[in-house]
Each structure stands twice: as C-alpha cells, then as structure tokens.
Amino acid sequence: MELENLAIRKLEERGVKIEDIAEITLFLQEKYIENLSIDDCISYVKDVITKRESINAILTAIAIDEVAEKRLIDNEICNIILEDSGLYGIDEILALSIVNVHGSIALTNFGYADKIKPGIVKVLDNIGKQKQQCHTFLDDIVCAIAASAASRIAHYGIEKSK
Ligand code: MG
C-alpha cells in the first residue's frame, strides 16, 4: 500500500494524474462498451496501478527519467535517453512488464496508444522534446497502464466497477 501511494504520488509529481490515464482508457474502449464512463475507467486504472508489476515499473521508469534529467549517469547513455530516439526501445520494454500481465488486448492497445500518443502522452512527449523534463520512460508507462485498464474492461465489463 505504501509503495502504491508512492507510485501515484510520483506520477502526479511528474505531471500525470490518474484521470489523465483514465481519459486514454476511455478513448481506447468507449467504442466497444456502451455507457462506459470516466469513473469506470478511473476505477480500472487504479486496479492496474495496485499491481506489483505496475508499481515496480512506474517507480523504475520515473527514477531513470529523473537521473537522466539531472545528468547523474554516464554522458553517452544519458544523451541517448534524453534524445528519446525511436530506436532506443528499452523504455517500451520496461512498460511491457505491465502490459504482459494483461493479455493480448493490452498489447495491441499499447502499440496503438504508443503510436498515436493521445492526451497526456502527447503533452509528456512535447515537454521532453523541448528538453524541459525527461519523460522518455514515463510516456510508455502511461500508455501501458491505460492499455492494460482497457484490456481489463474488455474482459470484465463495466459492472465490476459499480
Ligand atoms: Mg518513450
């Protein structure tokens, strides 16, 4: 519970609210589930965040972004992370540790969200491009949580959250 609260607090400190992630889940799933609300999505996003795999991935991703931002690691790898090159790929691999426990619907939605960068993902991407902060790892984590929540909604429906 303590680590879960730390993960939520770190997300908020880095500019990501649970509602922001739920907006993406709603966007991914509203065409398939009738009457899906933002509150349903918030409930499912919270479910995903409470999992140990998610907490570990969130805290690790933000830690890497922060040490890169502060230039506390070797220049060579620091520059690669700050550059957020599409060919780097380790940021996506870390986020897959969340996606992998939620099945193939999570995986396909993760790829889709990573490609089109909805909502807060685009905001993080732009902040990173302007070199104000490093969100190389966090943007993938946000896509992974949103996609995993979408998968849980597909499997369990909206009744569970009521
Ligand atoms: Mg990334």
| Low-pLDDT segments | none
What is the helix fraction of residues, given as a range? over 70%
By DSSP, the count of extended strands is 0
CA gyration radius, whole angstroms: 15 Å
In short:
With 162 residues, this protein is an all-alpha fold. It contains 9 helices and no strands.
Structure overview:
The structure is a single chain. The protein has 162 residues and is an all-alpha fold. It has a single domain, classed as PgpA-like (YutG-like), CATH 1.10.3760. It has helices spanning 2-13, 18-29, 38-49, 52-69, 75-83, 90-99, 103-116, 120-129, 138-156. Helix 7 (103-116) packs across helix 9. The longest helix has 19 residues, at 138-156. It is globular, with a radius of gyration of 15 Å. The two termini are 22 Å apart.
Give the key terms:
162 residues; YutG-like; binds magnesium ion
Fold topology:
Blueprint: H1 2-13, H2 18-29, H3 38-49, H4 52-69, H5 75-83, H6 90-99, H7 103-116, H8 120-129, H9 138-156
Helix pairs in contact: 1-4, 2-3, 2-9, 3-9, 4-5, 4-6, 6-9, 7-9, 8-9
Bound molecules: magnesium ion.
Magnesium ion binds at residues 84, 91, 136, 139-140.
